[in-house]
Write a structure and sequence with these properties.
By secondary structure, this protein is mainly alpha-helical. The chain folds into 3 domains: about 5-15 and about 65-240, no CATH class; about 250-300; about 310-385, no CATH class. The protein has 14 helices and 2 strands, in the order αββααααααααααααα. Strand 1 and strand 2 form a beta hairpin. Helix 1 runs antiparallel to helix 2 and helix 3 (about 115-140) packs parallel to helix 6. About 30% of the residues are buried.
Length: about 400
């Protein structure tokens, strides 16, 4: 596909993905918050779970959670499912548009170890393998006998997927496919468990049967799992804007730290209503995360000889200018990324910090190392920047 058309398609699908994701996550957060704040009222009967009053948009809302008796189905019942389905469908389309099309420019690291086609199969295998491994685990008798062990094994499944991703794919693709694997688990929970359980509850009420609360419990269990995955997935959704994470030599460790921090913060927020020191725990967790990230993202010490500007520009000409020029020669770029060009010394001086950050600190550029920049050349750029980024 023409790069310009692919970029436009990327924009439209990403916009829909973002809107649907906001709606899905917002619903999830709201209903989990409701469950933790419901107050059980006396005299409401055994089917009453709890009630809450809220104030929003200039009005009062009274919300009651309850189970329905046989034949009590209301005339209008609102479902929450298409937000989840749309988020996953558009996310899957984005994987295709960004990573599987265009010769796999963002998918593989340019080392030649695997082809773009092989990378695509690995990426798709991660999504399918991650979900089915997780789902079989939580369908098994072990889920009832040893729930804590199943939580540990779930982390093992995620870690195995991450190992495959970082072993074969580029850093950016590894981040996105890890997030997509979690997103597939979340959407699968909605499609295969939460919605079918709710359909059974509706059918029982409509047909005059007592509700089997095991369906409700199963739906709630998977909903809680999704709740804990939410913060890590949201981070991955925005990580492609921050090459200092996925392009760093410690990219895998950075992703683990942020995902664990996200899940812990979600847990602290979930228990804050009966955990008095939750603020200390919450901000302490964030502070610890930031401290670890500051250590892991420190640039390496520069020991290389400081190059002249002509020597420096020879590196840029060979490794960066194929994309970052007024008229790129790279076939996947119809315009310089982010409008950044290195055609003149003034341009190079203007973007010196970007060059250093992307090529030395994060090592995210050149994209997928498609121009085969060497460590010596990265070190030369670092030495040039450390000495003032002179262009005379």
């Amino acid at each position: 596909m023409d790069p310009q058309k692919r970029e436009l398609l990327d924009l439209v699908v990403r916009w829909v993905h973002m809107i649907a994701g906001i709606m899905w996550v917002g619903n999830s957060m709201l209903f989990n918050w409701l469950d933790r704040n419901l107050e059980k009222k006396a005299g409401r009967g055994p089917l009453h779970v709890g009630e809450i009053w809220m104030l929003h948009s200039g009005g009062f809302y009274q919300v009651e959670k309850k189970f329905l008796g046989p034949g009590e189905m209301p005339e209008i019942l609102h479902w929450f499912k298409w937000q989840a389905y749309t988020t996953w469908i558009t996310g899957f389309c984005l994987l295709g548009i960004v990573y599987y099309m265009g010769g796999g420019a963002y998918l593989v690291d340019g080392s030649g170890n695997i082809t773009a086609h092989q990378g695509t199969l690995i990426g798709l295998g991660m999504l399918a393998g991650g979900f089915f491994s997780y789902d079989l685990l939580w369908r098994s008798p072990l889920a009832k006998a040893a729930e804590g062990l199943c939580h540990v094994l779930t982390l093992v499944i995620v870690a195995a997927g991450m190992y495959v991703a970082f072993h074969y794919l580029s850093g950016r693709a590894a981040y996105m496919h890890t997030g997509a694997m979690l997103g597939t688990i979340m959407a699968g929970n909605v499609f295969f468990h939460i919605i079918p359980s709710q359909r059974e509850l509706v059918a029982a009420t409509t047909e005059g049967r007592d509700q089997d609360l095991s369906y409700s419990n199963r739906a709630k269990q998977r909903s809680i799992h999704n709740n804990y995955f939410t913060f890590p997935v949201l981070f991955v959704m925005v990580s492609n804007h921050f090459a200092i994470t996925y392009g760093n030599r410690h990219a895998a460790a950075i992703l683990v730290i942020i995902m664990v921090t996200g899940a812990l913060c979600r847990h602290i927020l979930n228990i804050r209503f009966h955990f008095g020191e939750w603020r200390v725990a919450f901000f302490g967790t964030i502070a610890a995360c930031i401290g670890l990230l500051l250590v892991l993202t420190r640039p390496p010490p520069q020991t290389a000889k400081v190059p002249t500007y002509n020597e420096l520009y020879a590196v840029l000409q060979a490794r960066c200018v194929p994309c970052h020029a007024e008229h790129p020669t790279d076939p996947t770029q119809n315009a310089p990324p982010k409008g950044i060009v290195f055609d003149t010394p003034e341009h190079v001086k203007q973007h010196a910090t970007n060059i250093y950050t992307q090529a030395v600190v994060s090592r995210a550029m050149p994209l997928g190392n498609r121009t085969h920049i060497t460590d010596e050349e990265r070190n030369a750029i670092g030495a040039w920047f450390s000495e003032g980024a002179k262009v005379e």
